[in-house]
From TrEMBL:
This is Cytochrome P450. It is found in: Membrane. Gene3D superfamilies: Cytochrome P450. One of its GO terms (biological process) is sterol metabolic process. Its cofactor is heme. One of its GO terms (cellular component) is membrane. The lineage of its organism: Eukaryota, Viridiplantae, Streptophyta, Embryophyta, Tracheophyta. Heme binds at C429.
Length: 487
């Protein structure tokens, strides 16, 4: 597919260049520095996009980045996904990217076109503050405590449907199913059935084009993702309108434990005006679906993989979970208090995120001309950050390639803006607690109900754009005898 795309683009480039004429990218030089970082911009429009995508799919993206660092240093220019870009790395660079008011959030064009322009990723200033203020209360710890039982119910139902009675399963597809079911339940308030299935059928192909070259031709991932995005928005519009009608009919009889859509619809400001309009609700729900689906599925999949490969870590984690399980009556759900005892399990999750971050990197945008480390970053240029560059730095994490969950026993000892699996600063992922509860509940039931071993010996994974293990990580599973006796 890459070869076909490259051939098509090479055919189109002369036409596009002719239509654009000879006009070059321009920017005002408000800074005294006029030198942009070193590096090559590559082929017009394409730049280094195909090279990065190929490296990600071959699981050599870190080496691809390191070669640039070796050649140009820790800051360099390139062309990614149709835009001039500056790559930079290191804790200081991460802090600058995540906290500076000179840097704006700027997802790739493909992401913007697929998710829309009225969600938290796209908006800035007061509009961003308004939307974040509406969504964040639902995702705070105090609110999520009420939903532990709902997540517990979804996880147990999932295991009963897809794991019990099986000898072999593929972990990655099942974890995607689990996280999607949790999202549908807690964020959308959509129960199992036809509508969930329709959403899932559109959602996975939409995700495939989130990081793609934004050329809208019939055979591209980008084209297909745009079509699936449109279908999802229509389905979500139906859900929103249905819940709006239900709120009008039952104004005085709304459930305390509402899904996020109902919560957002019920929020009012002065004069009865809704905090978020229909378009904003739909696009922000889509954003949260994307943020909470593959990322959590990747974490859970690689946790299963890590526990299969590391018997000592598995034994310590199992001991912690068994101690909690012994305090529960048959069929009794986990509580928030149970989750607070899973400290070692969460350290294992953090170490998994350090080694296998779901998001390889992302983009910001220079909101104005920026002088950084003696170079000019022109207004409107993308700024590209990569999590693995600090996660695997031996100066920050000694023997970084070794697996050691106890690195996170004292998190204050880790230099700020070095572990960035959840971003940082003002753009810190608002769904951290949601992901934590989801992960801890799922791992509790997996390790207390099953044992497993890997059926693939190569341990290979590609990024497409998130990590995907060989064959979806097939494992052989057996019910734990302790669990069978309790039934």
């Amino acid at each position: 597919m890459d070869n076909i795309l490259l051939a098509a683009l090479l055919f189109l480039i002369p036409i596009l260049m002719f239509l654009k004429g000879t006009k070059k990218t321009s920017y005002s030089l408000s800074s005294t520095t006029t030198t942009v970082p070193p590096g090559s911009m590559g082929i017009p429009i394409i730049g280094q996009s195909l090279g990065l995508l190929r490296a990600m799919r071959a699981n050599t993206a870190e080496q691809w980045i390191q070669e640039r660092v070796n050649k140009y240093g820790p800051i360099s220019k390139l062309n990614l996904f149709g835009k001039p870009t500056v790559f930079m790395y290191g804790p200081a660079a991460n802090k600058f990217i995540f906290t500076s008011n000179m840097v704006a959030n700027e997802p790739s064009k493909s992401t913007r076109m697929i998710l829309g322009d009225r969600n938290l990723l796209m908006l800035k200033g007061e509009e961003h503050k308004r939307l974040r203020g509406a969504i964040l209360p639902f995702l705070k710890t105090e609110s999520l405590k009420r939903y532990v039982g709902k997540m517990d119910e979804e996880v147990k139902m999932h295991l009963d449907m897809y794991w019990h009675g099986k000898q072999e399963v593929k972990v990655m597809p099942l974890m995607k199913t689990l996280t999607f079911d949790i999202i549908c339940s807690l964020l959308l308030g959509v129960e199992r059935g036809k509508l969930r299935y329709e959403l899932l059928e559109c959602f996975e192909p939409m995700m495939e084009g989130m990081l793609s070259i934004p050329i809208n031709l019939p055979f591209t991932r980008y084209n297909r993702s745009l079509k699936e995005s449109s279908k999802i928005q229509k389905l979500l519009k139906q859900i929103v309108q249905k819940k709006q009608n239900e709120l009008i009919k039952n104004q005085n009889n709304t459930s305390f434990e509402q899904d996020l859509i109902t919560s957002l619809l019920g929020m009012k400001v002065e004069e009865g005006k809704q905090v978020m309009n229909e378009k904003e609700i739909i696009q922000n729900i889509m954003l949260l679906m994307v943020a909470g689906h593959d990322t959590s599925a990747v974490l859970l999949t690689f946790l299963v993989r890590l526990l299969a490969n590391e018997p000592d870590i598995y034994a310590s984690l199992l001991q912690e979970q068994e101690e909690i399980a012994e305090t529960k009556l048959p069929g009794e759900s986990l509580t928030w208090e149970d989750l607070t005892k899973m400290k070692y399990t969460w350290r294992v999750a953090y170490e998994t995120l350090r080694l296998f971050p779901p998001v390889f990197g992302n983009f910001r945008m220079a909101a104005r001309d920026i002088e950084y480390e003696g170079y000019l970053i022109p207004k409107g240029w993308q700024i590209f950050w990569v999590s693995a560059m600090t996660h695997m730095d031996n100066n920050i994490f000694p023997e970084a390639s070794n697996i050691d969950p106890n690195r996170f026993e004292n998190q204050s000892s880790i230099p700020p803006y070095s572990f960035i699996a959840f971003g940082g600063g003002q753009r810190l992922c608002p769904g951290i607690e949601f992901a934590k509860i989801e992960t801890l509940v799922a791992i509790h039931y997996l390790v207390t109900r099953f044992t497993w071993k890997l059926l693939c010996a190569d341990n290979f994974f590609k990024r497409d754009p998130m990590p995907v293990p060989t064959q979806g990580l097939p494992i052989q599973i057996s019910p734990r005898k302790v669990y069978e006796k309790s039934l």
